[in-house]
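User: Predict the structure for this protein chain, please.
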Amino acid sequence: MTGYEIKFHSERCVGCQACVAACMEEKDTSPEAGEQPLCRILEQENENGQHLLSWRRESCRHCSNPACVKICPAGGFQKEEETGFVLYDKTSCIACGQCMEVCEEHAISFDREQVIQKCDGCREQVLEGRVPACVSVCPWGALEFIRN
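Assistant: Here is the predicted structure, written as structure tokens:
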């Protein structure tokens, strides 16, 4: 299967949150309405809770063997062959939350209508030959868009 990957280079990330802002704008995410950003940049902590001045990214990795696809009782998730993205059909959501429980990246959340929302890799832009919104704005090259 061919596909795409958004690779995160933590050593290049300065925590500026430009990727988060671009994603929120692109996907019309509203924290004021209780929505979580589809990607987050969080400061790393050690086991004692001390901040390490390094960053980690929480966003859909579009796993090769996604647990969300397997667990969804409504069949709302699919691994798209063309892009390799894990896509979600909001109309099938029964709001059970099982997908959120199995996602190791904490990349699935409820939107303002209490149905699932997750990163789609900016699929439409990618199919038009552009890169995802988060990648396009990263000033430090911490996000890299790769065709596998």
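The CA atoms of residues 126 and 132 lie 7 Å apart.
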